[in-house]
Amino acid sequence: MTTFLFPRHLRLTLLSGAALALAACSFDPNGEPPAMPQPAHYGAEAQPTQTVPAQGITQQFVVGAKPVPEWWKLYQSDALNALVDEGLRNSPTLAATDKSLAAAREQLRAQIGSSMLPTIDLGGQATRNRALAIPEAGPNTFLYNIFVGQLQAHYTFDLFGASRLADAALAARVNVQAYQFDAARRALAANIVTAAITSAALHAQIETTERLVTIANDQARDTQRRYALGAVSHADQLSAQQSAASLSASLPGLKQQWLTTRHALAVLLGRTPDAAPDDLDLAQLHVPEQVPVVVPSELLRTRPDIQAADAALKAAAADVGVATAQMLPSLSLSASMGQGGFSWPVALSGAGAIWSIGASLSQPLFHGGALFAQRRAAVDTYDATVSQYKQTVLAAFQNVADTLAALQHDAQALDAANIAARSAQGIFDETSGRYRLGALPIASTRSSEQQFRNAQLDEIRYTSARLTDTAALFQAMGNPPLESGPSATAAVPAVPAANVGVSN
């Protein structure tokens, strides 16, 4: 039996390749998200099962319920539903994000096709050449033609998963864009709802403030006449004038906020600012009575931002595998067949048949430490992505905790403001009745109406806050999870599993 001995440098190369293969299979991250703490409740204080009743409505927190896909319909406003539907259809920003996602999917398909399948090309060549003469053969030059037609094939065997891991990394990044598209779509709906509610509340505040300005101006004019008659002091006259001017000064800023909100809403809908929609009637918006509260463990599957961070983690893990696989041997196979000759008859005859087949094997030996540095960089990037995932989860928990606390406090503040407004209205009604009977002067009626209108302003503000914070909580809950994966990623082609220890 004959024994073959490999040269020392070849043995070292094969041994280093085997060691790196074992290292790749053993030490590459698997891309699974890190375990996160599961708090008993989101906030610093245990959340109640419901809010205090405000304006006759008690909001209930349904713990363990699934998120509501089209939650804005719970406000029971056809006008609001129409605005959201229009924005989701016509928003240029959302359309651009959708097209960017479609482009990313096509790039993934292109990369999978070029990396996992052989390439086959058809080529033809026809040239006329002039060669220098050979002095011993005579002074004439040589003129000749070459005709070649070939079918060429090339394939690189993905021995250690470099191509498949690169495809997996790109597929994960496409998933990141898909989840970001979901998040952008939900954020657009939430922004439209918030802008519509805010615009309606500002409109109501402007109407109430204009009434307050009218009352203050009337009071200032009466005080001016009484001062002229010597019935009040100059200080009383100046004080009434100052109150009326202060109220008038607050009105332009309020109108500016209102117009800015309307312009923003128009752009969210895909309109120009001059085509801003009419304001909704704040009184016609019904605050949803039941609000889902997803448990923390399930929130990791429902929030698009957390899902995007998870996909980014898988992409970073696959990048580590790619950097590892690039240190290992690479095997390529190429073949070609065709016809060729110095004339068309010869090129097309059996004598013109040409073919070739070959294989190449390469193993990186020395790249100045670049390959090891690239792998360390990939590992550091993966570690950073793990930390970013953790921060995304913590920020999501905080977002839910803040909105839950806001809804509780909104209900408390709105209940108090509602009681104050009803009491102030009762005082105003009684004072007006006594004024009509001649028992009280007009100044008393104006004073009681001012108190009522100011209490009404507070109630409008807290009503708006409750409606918008409810929208924020629905937004914070995310999307209902689908067993087959996110709808936005359904069109992403499958990537074959890699044989290096990184899974996707």
UniProtKB/TrEMBL annotation:
Keywords: Lipoprotein, Membrane, Palmitate, Signal, Transmembrane, Transmembrane beta strand. It is found in: Cell membrane. Residues 1-23 form the signal peptide. It is a lipid-anchor. The keyword Lyase does not apply. Pfam families: OEP. NCBIfam families: outer_NodT. Belongs to the outer membrane factor (OMF) (TC 1.B.17) family. This is Efflux transporter outer membrane subunit.
